């Protein structure tokens, strides 16, 4: 097992490599490391019982912070828009609040959700299936601001920068992500300053963050202070290196973008403290959960109680929360004494369906294989 003490002091001049190692895969029998536990303590998932809420309370919403939470003053915070534009612009948070105000319900999911379930395991934030949440985000649309500054017709990427600063795989950086200009101009994209009707919390990007409906969480840059339009593709670390689906270290891969379809079961019954296996009384049981996709609206959910050997259709609730919010599903089940493995799989309007087996990649991204919920129904 790797520990933080494995990196011994040495006599040579220190470099970034002394604090930031290369990416790697865990050995077949390697336990979760102290470093991974440290990440897991900082970054939490949604408790699965909280799937009962249509809108996830801010304190239960999943959280991923790459570096540190920066110390920012809303009274002095500004957003600068520049680069390949005719009229660079700097606006204050107060000025953004005076612009068009929009509230959207949007499901956010971390691109690494499910990583710790892969074999071999990519060593990073060890997510199981809980890195998700569905909140109401309030802010002003980005597209009108971009049009106001006068976009160079040769612009290809829009780069968003936050002040959170750190080292990752030997690269010192501010957190930066880019969107293709066509995606940045989508009317759904927001510069958000409120979450669930209250000012953003520090850990969720206060005082200003980007919301990109349909995309994995790495695109929703927090604490954003700079927007730069570029006529050449952005080759920053988080675009060109980190968030790419690749088979091996030499594969250039393809970028992680939109959320793959997923359904989660709200675990029934009650849990064992350590294993989280569920104990359920015999008899009628309403299985329910949430389903979402960033490609297209979810149109069907199927449920299994035997680990994927058979499937039954679930009922999808009608919703007016919009195309980028999760949907509740329900399925009536009669639980007889025995052992069961519950799961659900979603299909969206684009024809994408969750796989039962893992879709492995070196970074552990976009792994939407079907969840497994172990349930024991004892005889009375």
What does it look like?
By secondary structure, this protein is mainly β. The chain is built from five helices and 22 strands. It has a six-stranded mixed β-sheet, with no helix packed on it. The model has no long low-confidence stretch (mean pLDDT 95).
Principal-axes shape call: globular
Structural class: mainly beta
What is the straight-line distance between the termini?
43 Å
Indicate the proportion of strand residues: 25-35%
Tell me the Rg in angstroms. Answer: 22 Å
What are the low-pLDDT stretches, counting only 5+ consecutive residues below 50?
none
Spell out the helices and strands N to C.
HEEHEEHEEHEEEEHEEEEEEEEEEEE
Q: Total helix count?
A: 5
Largest sheet: 6 strands, mixed
- Round the mean pLDDT to the nearest integer and report it: 95
**Helical amount among residues, as a percent range?**
under 10%
Strand order of the largest sheet: 14-15-22-21-17-18
């Amino acid at each position: 097992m790797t520990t933080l003490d494995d990196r011994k002091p040495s006599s040579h001049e220190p470099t970034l490599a002394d604090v930031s190692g290369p990416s790697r895969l865990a050995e077949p029998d390697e336990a979760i490391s102290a470093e991974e536990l440290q990440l897991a303590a900082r970054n939490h998932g949604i408790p699965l019982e909280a799937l009962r809420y249509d809108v996830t309370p801010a304190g239960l919403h999943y959280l991923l912070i790459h570096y540190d939470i920066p110390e920012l003053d809303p009274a002095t915070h500004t957003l600068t828009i520049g680069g390949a534009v005719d009229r660079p612009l700097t606006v204050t948070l107060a000025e953004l609040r005076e612009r068009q105000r929009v509230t959207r319900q949007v499901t956010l999911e971390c691109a690494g959700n499910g990583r710790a379930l892969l074999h071999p395991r990519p060593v990073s934030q060890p997510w199981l299936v809980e890195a998700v949440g569905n909140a109401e985000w309030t802010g002003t649309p980005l597209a009108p601001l971009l049009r106001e500054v006068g976009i160079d017709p040769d612009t290809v990427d829009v780069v968003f920068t936050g002040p959170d600063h750190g080292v990752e795989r030997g690269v010192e950086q501010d957190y930066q992500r880019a969107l293709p200009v066509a995606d940045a101009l989508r009317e759904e994209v927001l510069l958000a300053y409120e979450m669930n009707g209250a000012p953003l919390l520090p850990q969720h990007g206060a005082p200003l963050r980007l919301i990109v409906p349909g995309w994995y969480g790495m695109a929703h840059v927090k604490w954003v202070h700079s927007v730069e339009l570029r006529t050449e593709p952005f080759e920053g670390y988080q675009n060109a290196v980190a968030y790419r689906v690749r088979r091996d270290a030499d594969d250039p891969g393809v970028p992680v973008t939109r959320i793959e379809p997923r359904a989660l079961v709200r675990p029934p019954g009650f849990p064992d403290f350590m294993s989280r296996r569920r104990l359920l009384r015999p008899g009628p049981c309403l299985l329910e959960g949430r389903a979402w996709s960033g490609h297209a609206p979810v149109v069907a959910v199927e449920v299994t109680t035997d680990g994927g050997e058979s499937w039954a259709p679930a009922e999808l609730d009608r919703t007016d929360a919009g195309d980028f919010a999760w949907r509740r599903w329900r399925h009536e089940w009669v639980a007889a004494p025995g052992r069961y493995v519950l799961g659900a799989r979603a299909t969206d309007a684009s024809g994408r369906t969750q796989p039962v087996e893992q879709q492995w990649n070196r970074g552990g991204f976009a792994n939407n294989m079907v969840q497994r919920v172990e349930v024991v129904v004892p005889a009375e």
